[in-house]
Amino acid sequence: MIKFLLMVNQQGQTRLSRYFEPVELNRRAAQEAAVVRCCLSRNKEQCSFVEYQDFKLVYRQYAALYVVVGVSHTENELSIFELIQNFVEVLDRYFSRVSELDIMFNLDSVHIILDEMIQNGHIVETNKNRILAPLTAINKMADG
């Protein structure tokens, strides 16, 4: 099960956080800081899967952004690695070369994409056209 998904820049600033399990607000900040430090301190030659406290971290770097996913110990790391790739490909298709600024200024659209892909910590959709269908409909209504 997916516990959380974070998008952070190279300075460690969180640009997107989504939790699929309840975590107290004061604990979230400390946990995010520790997770980000753990991932950013690793070099590119090291594995992108990290055993961390009571869960595993799967992360991937895209340009200046890191996508970090916390999962339970029973989750398949490679499937999560592919989920991260698919998520970024969907963002790229929607924003035509996604950047950190796209994430910051269109957070609602990014959350809609994430909600279409993951529900209650489980992957429910991977088809890019189906994931983008609600946003396409919203954009058509806004233009019409």
TrEMBL record:
All copies of domain AP complex mu/sigma subunit, residue ranges: 1-141
Subcellular location(s) per record: Endomembrane system
Record key words, sorted: Membrane, Protein transport, Transport
Transport listed as a keyword: yes
UniProt cross-references to SUPFAM superfamilies, sorted A to Z: SNARE-like (SSF64356)
GO terms under biological process: intracellular protein transport
Coiled coil residues, start to end: none
Keyword Transport listed: yes
Topology of this chain in the membrane: Peripheral membrane protein
Domain of life: Eukaryota
GO cellular component, one term: endomembrane system
Chief localization: membrane
Gene3D superfamilies listed in its UniProt record: 3.30.450.60
Assembly with partners or alone: Adaptor protein complex 4 (AP-4) is a heterotetramer composed of two large adaptins (epsilon-type subunit AP4E1 and beta-type subunit AP4B1), a medium adaptin (mu-type subunit AP4M1) and a small adaptin (sigma-type AP4S1).
Homology family: Belongs to the adaptor complexes small subunit family.
Protein purpose: Component of the adaptor protein complex 4 (AP-4). Adaptor protein complexes are vesicle coat components involved both in vesicle formation and cargo selection. They control the vesicular transport of proteins in different trafficking pathways. AP-4 forms a non clathrin-associated coat on vesicles departing the trans-Golgi network (TGN) and may be involved in the targeting of proteins from the trans-Golgi network (TGN) to the endosomal-lysosomal system.
Name of the protein: AP complex subunit sigma
Provenance organism: Nothobranchius kadleci
Gene name for this UniProt entry: AP4S1
